[in-house]
Amino acid sequence: MAPKKKQKTGPTTTAEPVTMPTETGLCQAHLLKVHDALQCIFAHEMFKDIRGESPLSPTNGGRESPLDLSQAAAALKSVGVYRCAGNFFHQDLLWLATHKIPINNSQVQQIKDYWFPPNAEPSLCPFTINLAVEKPTSVADRPEAGFARLSPAEPVHALLFALAEAIQRKAPEHVLRAFKSCVLTASFVFEICGVGEARYWRAQNIREEMVEKGLAVQMTLRQRIFDIAGFHEAKSKTETNLGSKKLAGLYSAHLKLASNQERISESFVDSALTIHRRLLSQPACQQVLEWCDQNWLSVSPWKSIYALQALIDRAGTPEMIAWALQGMVDGVRMSFLDAGVFVISKLKDSRVSYIEVLKMKKKVLQHLLTEWLMSLELPTEWKNKIKSTFSSFEKVRGHFAPYPQQTADTAWLLGAPTSVSEISTFLEGVIYGQEYDGRYKDGIKNRHEVQDFLAYSSVKSTMENLGALVRQEARPQAPNAPQVEEKAEETETAEAEASEAAPASVTAAEAAPASTLTDSDAAMWRQHMRKVVQQHVRFVSDHRSNADLEEALKETPSMSLRGDQTGMALFHFDLKKYGEPTTRPDLRIATFREALYTRLVKSVLNARKGATDGHTPHLQVSEVALLFDGGKKGLRNKLLAPWREGTASKADGGEEGEEEGEEGGEEEDDKPTLFVDLLQIGYSEQSLAARKKRVRGTCTIKQMEQCHVLSAKKLTLPSRDRKHFDGSTTGDLITNVKMPSWTEEWQLDWKTKKELLGKKHQILVGGKTEFKDEEKPNDRASNAKEPVSFHSPPLELYEELLHCFYAKMVFDLTPLDARFAYAALRNRVGYVGVAYNPEHERLMEERLMFLLEKDMRDSTSPLFSAAYSEAVLALQLGRAEDREPIGASTDLEDTHEETKTPPPKKGKAKAADAGRPTPPKRTISAVSEGDSQKPKRGKKAKEGPYTCYKEQGSIPEPELPRRSDALPAGKKAFTVLSWNVGGLRAFLKSRKKDLENAVQLASSPAVIGIMEHKLQDSTADSEAALKELSETLPDYELACVNYSTAKKGYSGVLALLRKEAPRPVAVTAEDLPSAAQEGRIVVLEFETVYVVVCYVPNSGDQLKRLTQRIEEWDVQLRQRLQDLGKKKHVLLMGDLNVAHQDKDIWNVEAPHVPKSAGTTNEERESFSKLIDSGFKDGFSLRHPEVLGAFTYWSVRAGNRPKNRGLRLDYAMVSDSLVSAQEHQTHFWDAFHLPAVATGDHCPVGAVLAV
């Protein structure tokens, strides 16, 4: 309950400091934000005197008559209520009915986004504000802080924050004036309400009345628990023996709950107090439930208080309660738990409760991180890092296996031995994943303990293999070394044969493992390889704006790493690899493009600025930039220029004045220093001559290149011998660097290479080419293969740079052929490369996968994997029958005896299986397009985008953010939602709430299209269904219903129009000749756009209607849309019954897919013709690379929980909507709403700026 305040009377006329209430409780952080917003507003010139201004009357643009004191006193005296216009700031914005309930900031944000979108002019104040006064005459005596507000705080705080943000971002004056009109047109309702408990109950009832009307101010379960506990605490101070029964009676007597709320009974109150005492008293639990409130709102799986009570009862101890709560929410976020596990009866049943699984996982984790991990011969440093990373869900998701659409900071794995990576994968799978959940459930049924679980053969053998791998790394010369060497010799022979047969241009998708292993083993190893690559190497595409590049770099985990005593951070730029001349690239070096170079350097430095304490973007201590000039010495100043900005350059070992700036140079004007030295690279004459048809003249082979070495402090690194070349790091010359021959380089056909380079990096050049009569190494006219880079230094030079500069991190501005990335991977150094475009990024990842696969079979490589080498070699030597399938489980479901692992066979290393990965599991963001390429060797099954998820059984569902940036000035969002409901009558019986939630999530769309309603014209059942639909959505009216008269209970489309939305010029029900009288189209014509709601015919069982579909319906639909498009923009919404791309089909590799309705090649090609006719797929425009975003799941097959679906529902926009100018109607956003998809289809939506 709110504390009584001393109130000063009299109106406020000038801007004065805002004071905080003395008691803030759980709302302190929120109220501080409110306080800051008020200070910001009152400090602005336009609003400094706003508290002294009168509200606007109807004659001045207001909505209601201003306050009349005599009328107010009379009304309050007679009926206790008085309504009038008010000044928004005449309420006490810091007053709350109780400070015991935390504010749900997500609700505030949702209201703010809906009513006050950024840069848009707000209309008149949309909220009614209820204010409390003690007596009729109190209206005349406004307290200094303002009148106490009874209505919920969320709407008024949303307006307050929107205004403060507009001021902070310096919104245009017309927007601020609109806000001023808004706050001066508030609707006030004064009520006689005494202080104390009376105001508490009245505030609660007003909230419930608003919830009943559909406003987004409903208390979450967490808030309700805090409410009851807070009221109990306050009431107990004045009443003794206040039990649950009496407290529940008070709520029943004083509070009328909204119809969708759980009844506050004695058991409810008892559970609330228990949960508050045992669960919410723990900060970790508070944090989890707060996250649920902020991110899930009405779709939280914790819908009932009795579910939380069951969790407490089942978990028992405080530590286990927190672990179980975190585990349940984590499982939902990782998409391997669904709402079914939150059913109260399941939570209570020890035989099926997932809490029991989590309890056993906790015990297993404690054993693995203490006894088992400590028993391994790992360095203490790595033991401690593993123990820290895998101690909680939060740390695992933040530093190893992230949630979908998030990234993990895996920088701690840089330099880690293979065993650390494998142990981490095992721990993530066995504790924080679902791979072993079946084993846990078996153990629970059979009352097993930790040791019983660890005795399962699949678990035991994995742990033994990991132990063997650790021992092998600690003692590489094991007693069975001769056997290993013999095996290595066989491996090298087989590898040599394979290498001779494979061209240098082979990609990762074409390379083994797919070429020799079984499909399942190949997919598993491919996943393992991708994880190895991504632990060290990340690429970021530079194909958009500077801000986009900087943001993408900042989101890269390794970007935050600083150089320190453990290693330097290197920046690398090589002019030879920054683009390519279109004419004779074999003879020419890329032209230096100063503007692009400067932009690139500044973007990278700006992105790094967030990781440092610098005030300007510049090199920090323990950072070194290596700039290769491509033999063009005259570019020195231009190369150094962007690095010198804001610094005091101190030394240059390449020019006179070498003594200048020696140690102890003072900073000039407090600027950071920049030291410049010179490292010279001398290339082998023979290797350069080998690239030419003939060598002529004197001094014609240019062997020297300069590398400018930039650092913030004078480099004084310890001297060390060079790794691959003569001399030591004391010298400034690396000699005899042998350039590889072009036949040894990574090669691509010209068409693919052109996509890799993009237009920006194909450099037009003119003038005479020296030695132009040299034979061309490439033939682009015939699309022949050529080197990706004609002038890339060898791998040895890159490894030398890592060695000489003690590198632990590389930021590569020119990663053209991924060679530096490969060097970083081999040396376990972190690497971030700026790719030209997404295609360049994809091809480099494939290249690394190919090189890694070769190294995993090379016993001399630091990336060698004994287990992989053995697996491949066993098949190559025809001994596949001797090898157990990788990843196969020999567990017996009900055995209690320990399964003995057979001893290793003669001739095999003990650690042969140590490098074997656990079954793959990763997030959507880790999947690349390379996964979907079909292997070209042997008769192998096609691999689709989701093949890698077959082992884990489900496909991660992406969390796709809606577009949140501001609409252009003067534009408003026009949202259209469409949904195939599969029969409206049945839908309304069971899924009314889903419909309401969908409308709320879509921000009350202007138009709602419903497909497959299956109603019949002028029947009682249909009329009743339409009436029920209108009652469910009272803010909407029926715009048009198109019935199927060709067949009863079939097809049908209808459209709803929000009553306050723009009115259409015309609305028509249409049918195409090929599906006459099937009720499949409704067209709504608005001022600037046609909205077409469409339900495309299914091709049917055995594809009976396929020919009619693609040769008639699709052709007629395209023609109709083109006719409409000649007049206005067109938005096509609905179930189009086709999955266009491979990523739109969860099992595209299955042989039956091309023969099934909606996924035939003919239907998919026909859809491409629609796109070619002048339309764009709106969702693909917004999310071009996302995977797992489906709109249909087979209910019969139970595919929804596993996210095994198809994308059949679309928002298609005419090209004119995409290319339109900002001041015109144009396409803005497209989205799916899978959260409400408890049936087969989910709603899809589109937003236009109108």
User: Can you count the helices?
Assistant: 38
Report the sheet with the most strands, covering strand number, pairing sense and barrel closure.
9 strands, mixed
Low-confidence stretches: 1-24, 476-512, 653-668, 877-940
Category by helix and strand content: alpha/beta
Strands, count: 31
Radius of gyration using CA atoms only:
34 Å
Overall pLDDT confidence: 83
Distance between the termini: 46 Å
Per DSSP, what share of the residues sits in E-state strands of 2 or more residues?
5-15%
The proportion of residues forming helix, as a percent range, comes to 25-40%
Q: How does the overall form come out from the CA principal axes?
A: globular
Biased composition (Low complexity): 499-515
GO molecular function, one term: endonuclease activity
Biased composition (Acidic residues): 487-498, 654-670
Region (Disordered): 473-516, 643-671, 769-789, 884-961
